[in-house]
Amino acid sequence: MAYVTTNPYTGETLKTFPMATFEEVDTALDVAHHAYEWWRDEPLTERTKVLSAAADILEHESKAFASMLTLEMGKVTSEAVAEVNVCVAILRYYVKHTESLLAPKLLQTAGFGDTNVHLVNDPLGIIFAVEPWNFPYYQVIRVAAPQLAAGNVVLLKHASNVPQCAALMSELFHRAGAPDGVFTNLYLPHELTEHVIASPYVRGVALTGSERAGAVIASLAGKHLKKSTLELGGMDAFIVLKDADVAAAAEWAVRGRCRNAGQVCVASKRFIVVDDVYDEFVERYRAEAAKLVAGDPADPTTTLAPLSSVHARIQVERQVADIVAQGASVEYLAEVPGWSADGTPNEGAFYPPALITNIPEGTPAARTEIFGPVAQLYRAKDEEDAIRIANDSPYGLGGSVFSADVHHAQEIARRLDTGMVTINRSSASGPDIPFGGVKNSGYGRELIDLGLKEFVNQKVVING
Questions:
Q1: How far apart are CA 65 and CA 160, in angstroms?
Q2: CB-count burial class (<10 Å; 0-12, 13-18, 19+) for 335
């Protein structure tokens, strides 16, 4: 594994970075631990001052930060700027709310006075963050902001194809006033991952990534008895009921499936439409997808980015071919660079928006997460059948329900075996919305107080 910047649009390799040595890793752990011993005792106002300064830097230099997202992973300009803006909002959320989120809580306990038993939240130490490439800033900030505010320090192992984004995150906190070791970026080789987790200085591990990576990190965290959170893949169900606004549903469907070129864990991926409106939905989805414009992600008119790499495009090709071999049908809905008119792949990292139908029930196809602008479409007999199809998945990250009756849609949402459900839109996120899933989509929550308190010591203090 090498840490390399390769422009997904041009295919040009721009810069490589040496991986950290064993000695460099140990030095980083020592520096981070010593920083923690000081940082944990800093007044909360001083810790959040760093977050506030980081938010200001991101806001004032949003275009410069966004341009690196476009360069390293191919994110279109509008989506890159939007990611930076979300990071600003998260940082400012914790500036505003950390004091109340960490405030001691009085516990009413038999045999003690009303103010004698306190539940307090103390920091733990180094939090090891293993983060993916699809949202190179957001994935880091949503972990770092609450943990730094709480008094922990963060050691980052980012994805190998976004090394400059990782460096910018480290530079951001340094410029914001964080002392050395409070936030550390390491170009860590895989073989030293366990060495980091095993360190007595490391007290928690947060991973966002694939099931395979999650299984490895979870096993290592379990082996060394470290707290951990996992946010893994998803096969989010997008249910359209017979009373839904089908035009709006189709528009949200394309947006939800093709945002970030479909490389989103919580993207809508399985579109489950009741028979009454199935045909109308299909036609409207085709029409909406045909409006997408693929091209240079730095061009403001581009609305469909390339995938993060040629390797990623080849992976999607293989998955789609495998699903078709199982009996499904595929159609391509828009032209992209590097593809011929019949959908035969040529070169480059683009993959066209596609629609897969006639997926045989019970085949592995229904359990294949595709990280690209490929929609899997299912015809449900009725809403009960739609719920059954939605829950027939090993994943449980997010989901959507479309209906004119919001209260009924909420009832359907409660029956979906997933971590979060949105009504009449594809997905939702924000600094005040807990994020996480069930089943193979992971465990634990990030953002708001739940995420912050995953990695603090909730200590009971009793006055005798």
A1: 18
A2: middle
3-232+439-462 and 237-423: same fold?
no
Assessment of whether the complete model's pTM goes beyond 0.85: yes
Residues annotated catalytic, as ranges: 231
Strands (E), 192-232: 202-208, 227-231
- pLDDT at residue number 347: 79
CB 445 within 8 A of CB 451: yes
Residue 298 has what DSSP assignment? T
Helix, strand, coil percent values for the chain (each to nearest 5)? 45, 20, 35
Residue 334 has which token pair?
């828009």
Say if residues 352 and 334 touch (Cβ distance below 8 Å). Answer: yes
Token pair 């591990």: residue = 205
The pLDDT tens digits for 27-67 are 999 999 999 999 999 999 999 999 999 999 999 999 999 99
DSSP-assigned letter for residue 360: P
pLDDT of residue 454: 84
Residue 93 DSSP SS3: helix
Pair 68, 164: CB distance under 8 Å: yes
Please identify which residue in the block is written with the tokens 């030293």: 192
Map out the domains of the chain as residue ranges: 3-232+439-462, 237-423
Neighbours of 433 (CB within 10 A): 12
In the DSSP assignment, the letter for residue 32 is H
Contact present, 444 and 94 (Cβ < 8 Å) = no
Nearest to 401, CA basis, from 428, 375, 376, 374: 428
Q: At what angle do helices 138-150 and 163-175 cross, to 10 degrees?
A: 30
Nearest-5° angle of CA 257, CA 365, CA 274?
60
Homologous superfamily, domain 237-423:
Aldehyde Dehydrogenase; Chain A, domain 2 (3.40.309.10)
Residue 334 has pLDDT above 70, yes or no: yes
- For helices 44-60 and 77-102, give the axis angle rounded to 10 degrees: 170
CA atoms of 419 and 444, how far apart (whole Å): 10
Indicate the average pLDDT of the chain: 94
Model pLDDT for residues 439-457, shown as the tens digit of each residue:
999 887 777 666 677 898 8
- What's the fold here for domain 3-232+439-462? Aldehyde Dehydrogenase; Chain A, domain 1 (3.40.605)
pLDDT over 90 at 431, yes or no: no
